[in-house]
Design brief:
It is globular and about 50 Å long. By secondary structure, the chain is α/β, with parallel strands linked by helices.
């Protein structure tokens, strides 16, 4: 069935976002991407209203941290961040058959959305396709796996997933798996929390380079980050991470890591989760003004350069500042950045041009 007749609004600045978890919400609650939903952060009508032209759409395997996806998002995030200060307290990775089934279900959901959209949604495979979608007001879905639990150590599944549309991969979520060790959630300490990549993980990095799959370092601990940096021939990219100097969660990036990303000509997408923005680390305080987001952007731009910073909201997977709310708050964020001195060319870079650039460099087309 084709979905037609959406009202198209074209805001001044089109955004391409580095991370969302919308598919988990759609599947858990039986919602349609084509309907304006009363809850959650993204659907197609709200995206068009806000000028969201697409994003990295995460495929992840729910575990103990998201065991009740139909529950309130605030409660789920509190659960995810509670009691997981070191690797021994993190949930174990789900077994591979379940992980593969779940990954296939989520990828199929996006493919069905594309098929039913009447041309309004496209799974993009190249930077040229992404750029064309942004110009033509077609919602661009970039298929991204967050946590490689569905991939076998021999990497056979990686080849198949690539052919099915996978173009970006986070080796781990914050729990350990067969390929490496994620960074546990802890405030006020370093992301240097334990072992890095396994031998299989190092092979996975090389295989992603060969296939030109982008590698996301957002949930890796610091040792894993440096091992990716040493092995990979692609730009270093953190799709949804912030500055550790301003909000010292283990999930955020140290100045040294930011410098390595800069030197690789990679980029960082700002995570909108309130805890990762705030200097007090409060993970559920929605009374977090947009000025705190601007402060993070300022810091990242000063450290990385305006060409290497974007947005990585974590919509439908994190707690948003009340002033932002959901995707319809993106124009308010852009206006706050404008008021802070970012002109339209700079806003275009932050909103989408930097993502197109780094993807073209990584993918080669």
């Amino acid at each position: 069935m084709q979905r037609l007749g959406l009202i198209v609004m074209t805001p001044t600045t089109i955004v391409f976002d580095g991370h969302n978890d919308v598919v988990l919400r759609l599947l858990a609650k039986g919602q349609s991407f084509f309907d304006r939903n009363a809850d959650g952060h993204i659907d197609l009508p709200r995206a068009k209203e806000a000028g969201l032209g697409g994003g990295f759409c995460a495929i992840s395997v729910p575990g103990a941290h998201r065991h009740s996806l139909d529950a309130d998002l605030t409660e789920m995030v509190k659960l995810a961040l509670s009691g997981h200060g070191d690797e021994t307290t993190m949930p174990e990775a789900p077994e591979r058959l379940y992980s593969t089934d779940t990954t296939m279900q989520q990828m199929a959901c996006f493919l069905r959305i594309e098929a039913e959209s009447g041309g309004q949604v496209k799974v993009v495979l190249t930077a040229e396709e992404l750029q064309r979608c942004l110009v033509q007001n077609v919602f661009a879905v970039l298929l991204h796996i967050e946590g490689a639990e569905a991939i076998d150590p021999e990497l056979n599944a990686l080849e198949v997933l690539y052919r099915a549309g996978l173009r970006s991969l986070g080796i781990v979520w914050s729990r350990p798996n067969a390929f490496g060790h994620g960074v546990p959630f802890k405030f006020g300490t370093s992301p240097d929390t334990g072992p890095g990549l396994t031998d299989a993980g190092k092979r996975l990095v090389r295989a992603c380079n060969k296939l030109r799959i982008m590698i996301d370092v957002s949930h890796l601990n610091e040792k894993g980050f440096w091992e990716v940096a040493a092995i990979s021939d692609a730009p270093l990219v953190a799709t949804h991470s912030n500055a550790h100097a301003l909000a010292p969660w283990t999930r955020n990036l140290t100045d040294r890591q930011l410098d390595a990303i800069r030197d690789s000509n990679g980029m960082v997408g700002l995570n909108f989760h309130v805890g990762f923005l705030r200097d007090d680390g409060d993970p559920a305080n929605t009374d977090t003004p947009l000025s705190v987001m601007v402060r993070q952007i300022d810091y990242l731009v000063d450290r990385l350069g305006i060409e290497r910073v974007g947005f990585g909201s974590d919509f439908d997977g994190a707690i948003m500042p009340a002033e932002l709310g959901d995707v319809t708050g993106l124009p308010r964020l852009l206006e706050s950045l404008r008021a802070a001195g970012y002109d339209q060319p700079a806003l275009n870079k932050l909103a989408h041009e930097n993502w197109v650039r780094v993807l073209r460099t990584t993918w080669g087309r």
